[in-house]
Amino acid sequence: MSGLLVVVAGPSGVGKGTVLGGVMDVLDEAEKSVSATTREPRPDEREGVHYHFVEPDEFARLVAADAFLEHAQFAGHWYGTLRTAVAERLARGRVVILEIEVQGAAQVAERVPEALRIFLAPPDMDELRRRLAARGTEDDAQVEARLDRARVELAAADSFDHVVVNDQPDRAVAEVVELIERARRDRISRGASARLPEGSSGR
Ligand code: 5GP
Questions:
Q1: pLDDT per residue as tens digits for the range 43-98
Q2: Domain that includes residue 29, residue range
Q3: Is the pLDDT of residue 203 over 60?
Q4: CA 160 – CA 141 distance, rounded (Å)
């Protein structure tokens, strides 16, 4: 079966990790791409599993080498999707999921138009604040910065193919799985499958 590139964006704290964990439990062929970031690892995060944690110098070197399909700054740190993390898996027919913020999602839309783009939205801002605070991984100032950024991200929701409201994780998982399965059927019938543009020349 042909590969599918899936972009999932949505504000910090909306539950992207939980929902995508559920999606991967249901869809054996789905996997998340591991991004590079300059932010520090959280206590439960491991190199190569949650992110490739790199120094700012190394990140800049990767940008210069055109190693990223997309990259963006978020809350003072850099994040990027490595082309190598995606291309080979797509070629093997996998469903490759990018869990990224909205600027990166816009870059992917331009470079891989056949990608399926889903925006995961919170039921409302109060619920987002509650989830971010309950997670306890950011201090108050960082929570406020992420909420400010969430307002900007929500304004971009309409540019996505689909908006899924994460009111209940199980329901949101089922909806995302259905969207992925429908997109795969649709692209197969159109003979379109995701291919990454070549580095520099293909941008
Ligand atoms: P966090 O610091 O909470 O892990 O991630 C902060 C934000 O950066 C989240 O919205 C997350 O989805 C996004 N993000 C993670 N990896 C990437 C990436 O490779 N590219 C972009 N553009 N955003 C990313």
A1: 999 999 999 999 999 999 999 999 999 999 998 999 999 999 899 999 999 999 99
A2: 4-190
A3: no
A4: 29
**Residue with CA nearest ligand 1 atom 11:** 100
pTM of the full predicted structure?
A: 0.91
Does some domain include residue 200?
no
CATH number for the domain harbouring residue 178? 3.40.50.300
Residue 197 lies in a domain: no
pLDDT exceeding 70 applies to what percent of the chain? 96
What's the token pair of residue 53? 């944690």
Using most ligand atoms within 8 A of CB, pick from 38, 54, 68, 101 the residue to mutate for ligand 1.
101
In whole angstroms, what is the distance from residue 124 CA to residue 117 CA? 21
**What pLDDT, in 10s, does the model give residues 135-178?**
888 889 988 998 999 999 999 999 999 999 999 999 999 999 99
Q: For CA atoms 163, 13, 30, 177, give the dihedral sign.
A: negative
